[in-house]
Predict the 3D structure of the following.
Amino acid sequence: MQIEAVRAVPGVSGFYFDDQRAIKTGAPEDGFTYGGQPVTEGFDAVRQAGEALLVELELSDGSVVRGDCAAVQYSGAGGRDPLFRAEEYAPVVEGPVADALRGRDPRAFADNVSLVELLPSANDGSEPDAGSEEGGGPRAGQALHTAVRYGVSQALAAAAARARRVTPTDVLADALGTTPATEPVPIFGQSGDARRRNAEKMLVKGVPVLPHGLFNSEAKLGSDGERLVEYLAWLGERAGELGPDGYRPRFHVDVYGTIGALFGPPYDRAEVTDYFADLAAAADPYPLQVEGPMDAGGRAEQIAAMAELRDGLADAGVPVDIVADEWCNTFDDVRAFVDAGAADVVQVKTPDLGGIQRSARAVTECEGTDTRAYLGGTCNETAVSARACVHVALATDAAQLLAKPGMGFDEGYMVVTNEMRRTLARRERAGPEVAADGSGGGRR
């Protein structure tokens, strides 16, 4: 079997692209959108429609497999690749990417994704550079946008699974030498701005980790941080009222650096740790983790600030875990945060790492450490990319997996939950391990 053709069609994603810098600096809400002017390169408005590039690989047996190129909601922020325009990158997928993959054996997943990682965005014979902070689409010699590598790698994993007659979980586990999970990975629901209504939906369904909360401005956090405290107290009360018997969820809120903006450094001083103690008390008896407590403006600065806060919380005996997000985008970033002990949890933001095999490797970087791996991503993905990430989570037995795409909660939760249960059931039915080429269709 071989790859016969590679096609790309511009499509839509499950949410929107938002200019995070503009929002943080006070872009006024205007109904569902924002007023004011964008400040991040490549944006036409503070909020604009999300895009995806739909990739199809046609195999020589006539089958077609898929992967979707998608980028995060807050593209161009915190060291990420610039805004992704699907129409600008369709010729890249049908040009350099197709030229490289056509005729290759789809079973050779590791070799195929490694080849894609090295491709430049244009056929000019030059080596790819480290990428650009500017917007404006692909440039000759520039490395492929992370969104392109993300979507193509999903299709390649699906192609390998098809050719080997196994699940993509098995393909990834074989490539990384991991032992896949045999139980469901805890799913993390995200509420969007409907942080009360959607949280109640999560509680009724017994979601293991919730609710994200989207506290991305002073108005939402409170001028003294009081609104987050009040929200956690309300959430704990509703968990007891609405959750199923024996329900013990983990609370996870994302504050987008607003706590750091409120207090400022140093982050190990009593004023800061006392506030986190208030958050823990409000969430009690449920464990709490806080994502993105500050945005220090660069990777080294963020690692130092996060480590300072983590040490301060430990010294003060405050039981709140902190989650790395800002400036933790690439594989090297994840490794740096883990090696520095700067976080209790690192988010592996799947579209930002490029190929899904890189996200899988990032999760394995947490093995043998006291840092857990949260396989995240963005609401601005698609059902295809979300399903692909389920296999990454299962192959690496991640600590938690984001429910995506979209911000309505129910739809994304359904997509990842059903794909996970379907895969676990298929692997259990398959029984004993099979040969490396996947013959027999069983578990690897």
User: Anything to note?
Assistant: The radius of gyration is 21 Å. The chain has a mean pLDDT of 92.
